[in-house]
Amino acid sequence: MKEYIDTLNTLIQSPNIEKIDNLTEELDVHLVKELYDRGFIDGVYINNKSTLGFIEPKVNIIGKEWLAAQESSNQVLREPKEDMIDLKPNFMGVGVNFNAVFRRVSRKFKKQT
């Protein structure tokens, strides 16, 4: 999965790539083929006895949407947002989520050391 994300990002950031084949060191042609087969990349597919490759590979809208979905789901998994104040009817309608306070303070303390 990470390889797919890295390859798609490389193709988006380098739109002037004219050819990817067995000799290309920047991208793995077999990984690009998998992305092409899944419908994430458009281009001219070359497959003969000596060469496997693509001419003018570009990430299409399906690939960009998939990439955006992966990046947004990774951000959700990385850092869950917690409220410091719990507005449930505790004491006069306001309570404090001490677990969230403890996690936040301990994260800041770990960053300082």
Strand order of the largest sheet: 1-3-2
CATH architecture of the largest domain: Orthogonal Bundle
Q: Could you state the order of secondary-structure elements as H and E?
A: HEHEEHEEH
CATH class of the largest domain: Mainly Alpha
> What is the tally of helical segments?
4
- The total domain count is 2
Class from helix and strand fractions: alpha+beta
Major pleated sheet: 3 strands, antiparallel
- The CATH topology assignment of the largest domain is Arc Repressor Mutant, subunit A
- Uncertain segments: none
**How many angstroms does the end-to-end distance come to?**
33 Å
What percent of residues adopt helix (DSSP H or I)?
40-55%
Q: Which superfamily, in CATH terms, is the homologous superfamily of the largest domain?
A: Winged helix-like DNA-binding domain superfamily/Winged helix DNA-binding domain
* Oligomeric state of the chains present here: single chain
Overall spatial form: elongated
Note the beta-strand portion: 15-25%
Number of strands: 5
Computed Rg: 23 Å
Mean pLDDT: 80
